[in-house]
Amino acid sequence: MLNFPLKMSILDKFTWFNVCRAGLTNQIKDNISKFKTTRDEVTGATALMHACVDNNLEVVRILLPYEDVVTDNSGKTGLMIAAEHGYLDLAKLLMVTQVGKQRENGQTALMHAAAYDFEEVVELLLPREGTMIDRNGWTALMCAVWRGSNKAASILAQVEAGMTSYQGETAFLCACDAGNYELAKLLLEKEGKSTLRSGETGLHLAARSGSKAIVELLLETLCRKQTQAGKTALMYAASAGNLEIVLLLLEREVGYQDAEGRTATMGAILNGHEDCMKVLLPREKDIVDKKGRSALEIAQSTAPSVMSYHVAALLGGTVDPTTGSTTLIQATRLGLFDIIKILIPAQTNLTDESGMCAIHYAVASHNLECTKLLKPYEGKALNANGHHALIMAVMEGNVSVILELIEHSWLPDAEGNYPITYCAENPMGDIYQLLFSHMIQTHPNFKVVIRSFCDALHKGFSLLANEYSDSENLEFLSELLLLISELFFSPEKLAASQITADITALLDSFTVAVHESPCCVCIDRPAFVIIRPCLHMCICSTCVASLRGRCPYCQSTVAEYFEIALEE
């Protein structure tokens, strides 16, 4: 800590201010004649004001005779500083000479104390500065209410309730605007019917500020009141996006129009509040303003594009007369998921001038979520090129969309081509294998086709076995089985090996003893009928009718027979 001599000559105001703030009373007394009323270059504050900030009563007493009526650049006095800090003893000392002073904006020490909710200082100053107003006509009560100083406001209301500003503001209206339910209720009896010069009531202000409690307090007495511009509390709530308030006021004020003919719906649209618009539009959709514009036209001309699509969707959707583009198509191109849900199924299967449905745009933009939404309604729709959505996805190479639409793999285009046809340039690629695997597993005659294929394959193997007996034949058969495995390839990697095993087992079970290639009966036509249980392929399809329950080759009893269908 610095040690100053008992007597010290201060040379500059910077040191003077520091000495005063440090409370060095001897040095202050020795130099006060030289530096009295010296001001800070920036704020205009004096040493007395610095001492007030520090609540240094001893220094203030020394300086007060020299700086009692001095103010800073904004007109603030030491008493105002004491009031806004809640220094009661300091305020008592200063009010003798400074009470009743006003700043350039008209504020008093009482207003400062009220704003900061120092009730003891408020009680001290109220008898001397109560009912004084600032240059806007505001009272200390209004300042307290606006700042949420409830204790100070309760004291001031006894004297200043009922006073109005130059704009017609009252403390009650300030409470409603600030959303202060406690003070609004306190002031309701004396000021509840007050309005601004513009005609705004407490309900208007509470609706705008979003105070549900105050709206409920005032609803029965102030609803259906219109401002000079014709606006209702519902319009204020909608324009501010206060959905809870909109729901409270809806039944009482829906359908009103302001001086320009605008409704609450239009206010919600212009300010971008979709949730409020959704509630109001069904009740006000047929109303037009004084320029003849509907809510949709206002949305399309002045509101953000998403809002205009939402309004159009709630009204059932529109169709552009020039391009044929529907609201659903436009929403899909922008990926507006919620709007698409509203328009399904009303605008599905409608095409624009390019012959495109909404799902075609969803696929083109690789939007999987929109594709999922539209698939049940437009999955089979063809575009101008005769392609449905899966074909477009195949051409785009979009695997995620293909998987979503793969149930349409057997759905042909306008010329009868299947989606797999569009993989011709890469027949062994992932997309081709994906489509092929799904097609063979979902074909209605899949099992019959596989059975016929295996029977025909067995016959071929049998014929080869008669002609070849060396190891080359076995190698050929192994390679053929490998090709079969690749043919039935599946992304799961299991189906191929399983099918190969099934084919091999089936071939083993069909090791048929053959008499010779021609039919044993007519000795003319090929023998393509297999007899069970002996498994002899020894009769043609024409002569099979002559069977008398015995195999013509071995005379064993016939349990059943079947014909190999090579081209089934």
UniProtKB/TrEMBL annotation:
InterPro entries per the UniProt record, alphabetical: Ankyrin_rpt, Ankyrin_rpt-contain_sf, Znf_RING, Znf_RING/FYVE/PHD
GO MF term list: zinc ion binding
Source species, domain of life: Eukaryota
Positions of the RING-type domain: 519-555
Pfam families documented for this protein: Ank (PF00023), Ank_2 (PF12796), zf-C3HC4_3 (PF13920)
Ranges for the ANK repeats: 198-220, 229-252
Keywords per UniProt: ANK repeat, Metal-binding, Zinc, Zinc-finger
SMART domains linked to this entry: ANK
Keyword Transcription regulation: no
Entry protein name: Ankyrin repeat protein
